[in-house]
Specification:
Blueprint: H1 3-6, E1 8-9, E2 14-15, E3 23-26, H2 37-50, E4 52-55, E5 58-61, E6 65-68, H3 96-99, H4 127-137, H5 142-150, E7 151-152, H6 159-176, H7 188-213, E8 226-227
Helix pairs in contact: 5-6, 6-7
């Protein structure tokens, strides 16, 4: 994988994968090699922070999300998250400043394997139609405004942690409660259980892993967010 393929190819004068996409997934990421580690790392850090990239004299903007999918060795995939789970990833991801820019981490065993009793019988949404709905909802800021009303941010909270939790909670709100159009359409306890708590767990794993990668983050805790109407436990 090269910076040209991901962001901009100067030779072909053509934008890369992030342009015009809702998200870019690097599947089997542990097997991917990068042509220039430092170049790709710098480009990813800038893009994930600001949504912009610069290659030569070309400056581009995109809003594609970035997802890493892969298998981590069982002997280091500690169930409680107390082992460094990023050592199997390419060297480009062995830097805390880059990993911090990823909002959350989902452990594979938290996603159930497909079984026959999970398959739907009868009417269902066509997957292409469902994807079109999700695409349209990306630009709908109603859900984010609801999340902003629910989550009470403590003074001195780390901005990256706050933004990560809010963005993931917004995604859960869209997926699980697409009918919600105001804070009155969902109870605080529903929001906390199905959106906020899940977002918090995903971010908390990143925070702990950062402490294993870099002493600067050792012992860092999640901000003590509260939920409008109830206290976050």
């Amino acid at each position: 994988m090269s910076r040209a393929k991901m962001f901009y190819d100067q030779t072909k004068r053509r934008e890369g994968l992030v342009a015009g996409s809702d998200f870019v997934t690097l599947d089997e990421v542990q097997t991917i090699s990068f042509t220039d580690t430092d170049e790709m790392r710098a480009a990813l850090k800038g893009y994930l922070e600001q949504g912009t990239f610069t290659v030569g004299d070309y400056k581009g903007t995109a809003d594609a999300g970035m997802i890493l999918c892969g298998n981590i060795s069982k002997n280091i995939m500690d169930e409680d998250g107390y082992a460094n789970m990023f050592v199997d990833l390419p060297v480009v991801f062995h830097e805390s400043a880059l990993i911090e820019r990823f909002h959350g981490f989902i452990k594979g065993w938290n996603i159930p394997r497909m079984k026959d009793d999970l398959k739907v019988n009868g009417w269902a949404l066509n997957s292409e139609y469902f994807c079109s709905i999700m695409h349209e909802l990306r630009s709908d800021m109603t859900y984010r405004s609801i999340v902003d009303e629910f989550i009470i941010v403590p003074e001195g909270a780390d901005t990256r942690d706050t933004e990560a939790v809010k963005r993931i909670a917004t995604a859960y709100l869209k997926l699980l409660f697409p009918n919600v159009q105001s804070i009155d359409d969902i109870t605080p306890r529903e929001f906390k259980r199905y959106c906020f708590d899940r977002a918090g767990r995903m971010r908390d794993t990143i925070i702990y892993q950062l402490g294993l990668l870099d002493n600067e983050y050792a012992g860092k805790d999640m901000p003590h967010f509260k939920i409008y109407g109830i206290n976050a436990e």
